């Protein structure tokens, strides 16, 4: 899927039947980009521990440093992510959650929520969608981040991205969906925009670029927390630095993270 095949520069959702459903920009004042310069709430939905750090760790640290409230939800317990023949799912869960919490603290993420789902089992179900709707309504984010479900990648990534997009619109905003939440005092919420990460190539798909050059070391420190996934901390730093140096050879030396923005009328 690329721009020449109709991949829109900006995606929009709207009830207005006279708008083109995709591709017609919503006025900026109706999205987070046009809001007053005040602290925002940013809610990240990642499938596994470490997914956030890899995809948007620098941006998360940057936004937190700017005074925004950044919250991370991890959709599974990450119990399957190991090639160690001696590792068990039970032990891995006990390792990966602390790794993620330590990394989140380094990035300045204020809260980490682990959903009660097993690694590799995510499906597009009423129950999983309801878990995400609950958190969107509870934390009332201005911006949601999640996996790009439209590129091949880990199934849990695709499921998390797909269900999060559906939860943001229409399920979190329409009160007759999940009415049991209103009984708990958790009321509907309209998300202004979703940033999709992962699988965005160099063919114009990404329309948001975050310069994370000043937060490269913060991202490295966060990645180095995930010893169970990436190995010893110093080896992690060495590999990622080498990767960044290779990428910057033909560029301007900046480090960036890229996203596809989906806008919603608020």
Overview of the molecule:
- By secondary structure, the protein is an alpha/beta fold.
- The protein has one domain: Rossmann fold, CATH 3.40.50.
- It is 37% helix and 16% strand.
- It contains eight helices and eight strands, in the order E-E-H-E-H-E-H-E-H-H-E-E-H-H-H-E.
- Strands 1, 2, 3, 4, 5, 6, 7 and 8 form an eight-stranded mixed β-sheet that branches.
- Helix 1 links the parallel strand 2 and strand 3.
- Helix 1 packs parallel to helix 2, helix 1 crosses helix 6 and helix 6 packs antiparallel against helix 8.
- It is globular and about 50 Å long.
- The N terminus is likely disordered.
Find the CATH superfamily: LmbE-like
Q: How many strands?
A: 8
> Mean of residue pLDDT?
86
Number of helical segments with 4 or more residues: 8
Helical fraction: 25-40%
The top level CATH class name = Alpha Beta
Quickly give the CATH architecture. 3-Layer(aba) Sandwich
Beta percentage is 15-25%
The arrangement of helices and strands along the chain is EEHEHEHEHHEEHHHE
**CATH topology, what is it called?**
Rossmann fold
Main β sheet profile: 8 strands, mixed
Query: Radius of gyration over alpha carbons?
Result: 18 Å
SS class: alpha/beta
Note poorly predicted spans. Answer: 1-23
The global form is globular
End-to-end CA span: 28 Å
Number of domains: 1
